[in-house]
Automatic annotation (TrEMBL):
Residues 1-19 form the signal peptide. It comes from the Bacteria. Residues 18-66 are annotated as: Disordered. Residues 23-66 have a biased composition (Acidic residues). Keywords: Signal. This is YusW-like protein. Pfam families: YusW (PF14039).
Amino acid sequence: MKKFGMAALTAVFATGLVACGDTTDDEGQDTVEVPAEDEMDDDLDTDEDDTDMDDDTTEDTDSQEAAAEDWFEELNFEQFQLDAEYGEQTFMVDYDYNDGEPQAVIEDNRDDEAGEIQGEDALDELATILPEMNIDDQATEEELIEEAIMAFELDEDYDEIEVEVEFFNDADIDADDEDEDEDENNL
């Protein structure tokens, strides 16, 4: 389609030049100058080069998408669990690397639009969150809880929060925190 368009554009351009130019030779005869066929082919070759660039861009986009799909390969942990309780409302995340076949579930019933997402939808949601978390096997329980609260944009007025992370080096951190006011009210 591009080749036809360029050929038509070249023909229109050549016709315009002929119509505007001097069409008589030195002897007074009318002449028409038609571009050589190889000149038209050069114009078409330029379009083919542009098409190749489009293919390169598509390949770059494909490789970026593939890299985005493998975000979980960059994590230093293989399991992540988060449970936060706000009275009767809860927020829960469960991620498992599962030998390169990750699985995830996110449950959120903190508002009227409570729901659960799992599988690819949950992984898509976590793809922008888990890689941004700054945690390793040396993190303290407090640091782990703080990172989870920031990453998932949780309210800090929870009744109880528990975060469990298992790293690829078999280290794990289990962190939990309860609202002390809630404990005093239960006495």
